[in-house]
Design brief:
The chain is α/β, with parallel strands linked by helices. The protein is built from twelve helices and twelve strands. Helix 7 links the parallel strand 9 and strand 10. The longest helix has 17 residues. The structure holds NADP nicotinamide-adenine-dinucleotide phosphate.
Length: 308
């Protein structure tokens, strides 16, 4: 699979990433299969040429990082082939005391503790990319920048990025941090096109950051049988994907991902399926060129009206 530089960093990543959010499966699946379900999916992604793995400390309550750690321990040499990203900054209710509410926490103490826990779960010395998961309304950019600098100097994290940040939040943090923030991971799909207009993708182009697209298939809604969808926008968009896919001799999933890859900012879609056959199929998006006409036809279907 083709690769690209991650933001303005020396890291080189596959043009598609693999998301580990669902690796622990449903409670039932996970308890029956242990790590096997997630490890199988991870290997399918690697076999398809994906070298960029997206995690978070809270995925599966920590299980997803452990599953990736298990996979790395089972396959010597795998670590060197992968760029491993994780996130911190969201705290569940009840952590650490029963009364604590669900919250965001970019305090120095929490970031440092979270990195230590992630390293331990995955059995790593160093995380390639650490992202702040969702903007903390109480963020102190100077405090965060200070922790990032210390983590970098300690050799625990190579590069830093953010997730779900507005352009002005990126600017505030970037002003305080002396190294380039390399990614902003946001929701982008044919069902979530706000970042085309709200400055997020333009800022990535301007600063040379890589946008990463989470839920690129609308959590699967874009690739369901259109007849089964009751939401009018989902149905219209899924129908348009079927029509374009038929014309191009491919599948709706591949077209939906190629639609993201076509944008000049270098969007990195994060695949979320745990089904090995779907991972192999979706990886084909990396080689599907989409014409300007196809791209706009799909945008129009998503918006439900002609552009102004
Ligand atoms: N930064 C953030 O705030 C944030 C938020 C959400 C997600 N993420 C990241 O983004 C990654 C991807 O998100 P996502 O999992 O929502 O991605 P997605 O690709 O939009 O949705 C994946 C879901 O769609 C289903 N699916 C995929 N292809 C299908 C097909 N052909 N037919 C029917 N169902 C299909 C999958 O089911 P099967 O597994 O059964 O195939 C899975 O349930 C996550 O793993 C995580 O790394 C980040």
């Amino acid at each position: 699979m083709d690769t690209r530089s991650l933001g303005r960093s020396p890291l080189e990543v596959s043009v598609l990433a693999y998301g580990a959010w669902r690796l622990a499966g449903s409670e039932g699946k996970a308890s029956i299969e242990g790590s096997a379900y997630g490890i199988r999916a991870l290997h399918a992604a690697v076999d398809a040429g994906i070298t960029f793995i997206d995690l978070a400390d809270i995925y599966g309550g920590g299980r997803c990082e452990e599953i990736v750690g298990d996979a790395l321990r089972q396959s010597p040499g795998l670590r060197q082939r992968l760029v491993i990203a994780t996130k911190c900054g969201i705290r569940r209710s009840g952590d650490p005391t029963p009364q604590a509410p669900f919250r965001y926490d970019f305090s120095r103490e929490h970031i440092l503790r979270s990195v230590e826990v992630s390293l331990k779960r995955m059995g790593l010395h160093e995380i390639d990319l650490l992202m702040l998961h969702r903007p903390d309304y109480l963020m102190d950019p100077a405090e965060v920048a200070g922790v990032f600098v210390d983590l970098r100097q300690a050799g625990k994290v190579r590069e830093f990025g953010v997730s779900n940040f507005t352009p002005s939040q990126v600017t505030a943090l970037q002003k305080a941090f002396p190294h380039p923030l390399v990614v902003n991971q946001v929701e982008i799909s044919l069902l979530q096109t706000a970042t085309l207009d709200d400055g997020t993708l333009n800022q990535c182009l301007e600063l040379g950051m890589s946008p990463m697209a989470w839920s690129p298939l609308g959590r699967g809604a874009l690739v369901q049988d259109p007849g089964s969808l009751t939401d009018a926008r989902q149905r219209r968009t899924a129908e348009a994907l079927v029509a374009v896919a038929r014309r191009l001799g491919t599948t709706p999933s591949v077209v939906a991902l190629a639609w993201l890859l076509r944008h000049l900012s270098g969007i990195i879609p994060i695949l979320g399926t745990c089904t090995p056959e779907r991972i192999a199929e979706q990886a084909l998006a990396a080689t599907l060129p989409l014409s300007r006409e196809d791209w706009y036809e799909l945008l129009e279907a998503s918006r439900g009206s002609r552009l102004p």
